[in-house]
Write a sequence for this structure.
């Protein structure tokens, strides 16, 4: 039997299998109140056979917004919308945690009444962001003050409390992919000379302030976090000589909290680390000996490569992204070694039900064959 199909425990979370649905931005929320919709509840319920669903990023405040049609977790209306999602998943026997998100400098003034977005330092990532009007260039962000940082810590605590009220089984702190926490971690985006910059301890200070605030709202064994150490030349982040020591510090200190899991993303392609002396070809292999908490591995993995990572004790569960988009019954397909639907990339962020709710299940495909 595939180890992917066996149960496992991540902190307080009892998973019926080790196949995790990775957080996937799909841009299907209401764009006025950033409220989760009924079709989002149907989408997640279709995929409730996952051992664990990590929700798409839920923005902790209007300041944290970086994209259109993405859900929030700061208002009562949003809590009510998310409650429909969690109820639908739980009705199918699934588990779901809420990914708490702040985009930081990866945003545009149009989302902030013309004001620049925020970041640890006033450094433009020089990226292009998706908007309803097309791609828009980023600008130099506002460097956060100490008071600003304290306010964002409070926003994450409120987000955790709202996630609990919405019925989520836990939360994941989105501390990767070049967003706000990652901006604090990286020396290319954080040049502060106060207690939030310089050493790994200082660059990680904001993250641990948030973690402890979130831990006052939820038990630590229902909290996970996500790191993408080898994100290089994407979203304005560069892997340098400070990257690995900073992540070593973060993981060793995070071990002290008894967290549910650490969600690690492998390099998306060899080109991410090619020619970079500071890169790691296998993130899980390097950091597994350092982490005492359970690990989820993610990054363009297949049924076979995910199983190999489990068999090699490089992780405790495996997260899939695009495979879940196109295969709401991914667990069943893995169990039968069945062919996977191919995702329609053009529909990833376009809104509507096409490419969202209409991918056929294995049973539907079998009926189609029999009827044909």
């Amino acid at each position: 039997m595939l180890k992917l199909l066996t149960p496992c425990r991540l902190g307080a979370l009892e998973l019926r299998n080790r196949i995790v649905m990775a957080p996937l931005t799909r841009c299907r929320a209401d764009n006025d109140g950033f409220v989760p919709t009924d079709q989002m509840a149907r989408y997640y319920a279709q995929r409730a056979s996952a051992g664990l669903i990590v929700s798409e990023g839920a923005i902790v405040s209007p300041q944290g917004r970086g994209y259109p049609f993405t859900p929030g977790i700061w208002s009562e209306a949003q809590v009510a919308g998310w409650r429909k999602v969690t109820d639908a998943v739980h009705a199918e026997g699934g588990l779901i945690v809420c990914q708490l998100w702040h985009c930081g400098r990866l945003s545009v003034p149009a989302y902030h009444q013309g004001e620049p977005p925020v970041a640890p330092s006033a450094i433009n990532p020089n990226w292009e962001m998706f908007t309803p009007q097309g791609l828009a260039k980023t600008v130099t962000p506002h460097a956060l003050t100490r008071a600003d940082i304290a306010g964002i810590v409070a926003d994450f605590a409120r987000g955790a409390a709202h996630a609990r009220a919405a019925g989520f089984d836990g939360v994941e702190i989105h501390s990767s992919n070049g967003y706000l926490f990652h901006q604090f971690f990286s020396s290319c985006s954080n040049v502060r000379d106060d207690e939030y910059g310089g050493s790994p301890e200082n660059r990680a200070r904001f993250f641990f302030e948030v973690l402890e605030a979130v831990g006052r709202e939820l038990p630590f064994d229902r909290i996970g976090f996500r790191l993408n150490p080898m994100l290089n030349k994407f979203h304005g982040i560069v892997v340098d000589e400070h990257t690995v020591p900073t992540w070593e510090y973060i993981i060793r200190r995070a071990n002290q909290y008894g967290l549910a899991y650490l969600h690690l993303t492998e390099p998306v392609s060899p080109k991410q680390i090619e020619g970079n002396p500071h890169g790691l070809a296998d993130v899980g292999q390097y950091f597994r000996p350092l982490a005492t908490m359970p690990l989820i591995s993610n990054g363009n993995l297949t049924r076979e490569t995910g199983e190999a990572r489990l068999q090699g004790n490089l992780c405790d569960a495996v997260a899939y992204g695009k495979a879940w988009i196109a295969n709401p019954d991914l667990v069943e397909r893995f169990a039968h070694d069945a062919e996977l639907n191919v995702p329609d990339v053009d529909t990833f962020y376009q809104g509507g039900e096409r490419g969202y709710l209409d991918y056929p299940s294995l049973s539907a495909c079998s009926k189609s064959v029999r009827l044909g």
